[in-house]
């Protein structure tokens, strides 16, 4: 982490997310030592911080850095490899065979570097990852200077990464021990899904989550098929099985949560669990429509995720905000469901809260770390601007993100990434593409 010069960022609009629902006109954010020092009117700020370097953003909205609450970053290397398929055929016929043949530490490092470049260019400053070889994802996140929550993945079947659930857990915990004090890193226990992790391993994970006060990042109720199979095999729905095993609690980040009964929505609310809503992935895999308005109404904390680039195919949080807002309205048959400010909160503070990071990031508040993104609203397709939050959710795209800071460090300025030359990465991406393309031929 580089120490940066104290800087005063003066924007046309500052959208702090906390307090909720406000837009600050002609405000400045003073940052120093990676921290947000103050948020104040620009006229006052110039007098109060005369020694700070200045960045003027006259047509821009400054927002908290976006939090991608669910991804498999390395899967960027499989972007567009197999499309237009339902979840189980997509996994069983394409993704799992390709992963078993090709995924290695180098694959994860290269794929995650690519993902970090894409995410930073779209205003994402923090991602919650679940994939094999998380130590390689750590290297990539640190090399690109992104904030990351790394999943200590657990899955019943053996891979080149680990042989059985105990081996997965041991490797994940060793990685956590090594990096637990790093300012940009945090860790989640990451059982892949109820249908790929046995009761014994889930029980151990529940105990560890309580002991370590560690989030549990898990795909839950993604498809109707997952639920039918669980009822046949276990005599109960997956969420009920997770509850009995002790997984459902304030640490749970329940990914997708597409198919939920009213009682299950109440269960998630009562236990203080979070949901990672991934609207594009749910639409593309035809998984269904998550009852987001009902979850929010019940008081469930709902953040937004892109899922992996093989099922989206963009790691684009701005697009997920728009999808989430539009889809929630259609599903609830209520145009007032998930208004723009709520969608922005889901993509920032709610994601941070799910990861236990809301004291540190997720809003523009003095004392929090300076994870920030600016969007340039001067383009014709964004004019006029009545309400910059409406524009963020319904109108702007990631191509309008101009500046990004992580922990006070400027990662992108005027759409140019800084300190992001990864020698040989382009060539290696082409090699991975060739290997994956030939996967059926040997
Ligand atoms: Zn996923």
Walk me through this protein's architecture.
The chain has 442 residues and is of the alpha/beta class. The chain is built from 15 helices and 16 strands. The strands form three sheets. Strands 3-2-1-4-13-14-15-16 form an eight-stranded mixed β-sheet, covered by helices on one side. It has a four-stranded parallel β-sheet with strand order 5-6-7-8. Strands 9-10-11-12 form a four-stranded parallel β-sheet. A hairpin with a 2-residue loop joins strand 2 (24-32) and strand 3 (35-41). Zinc ion (ZN) is lined by residues 70, 72, 219, 255, 307-308.
Strand-helix topology:
Blueprint: E1 7-14, E2 24-32, E3 35-41, H1 42-48, E4 53-64, E5 66-71, H2 87-102, H3 105-121, E6 124-129, H4 134-144, E7 147-154, H5 165-179, E8 185-191, H6 199-212, E9 216-220, H7 224-234, H8 238-244, E10 252-256, H9 262-270, E11 274-277, H10 279-284, H11 292-298, E12 301-304, H12 317-332, H13 340-354, E13 372-376, H14 388-394, E14 401-406, E15 409-413, E16 416-417, H15 425-437
Parallel strand pairs: 1-4, 5-6, 6-7, 7-8, 9-10, 10-11, 11-12
Antiparallel strand pairs: 1-2, 2-3, 4-13, 13-14, 14-15, 15-16
The structure holds zinc ion.
The site of zinc ion has 6 residues, from loops.
In short:
With 442 residues, the protein is α/β, with parallel strands linked by helices.
Question: Which key phrases capture this entry?
Answer:
single chain; 442 residues; alpha/beta; eight-stranded mixed sheet; four-stranded parallel sheet; 15 helices; 16 strands; 22% strand; binds zinc ion
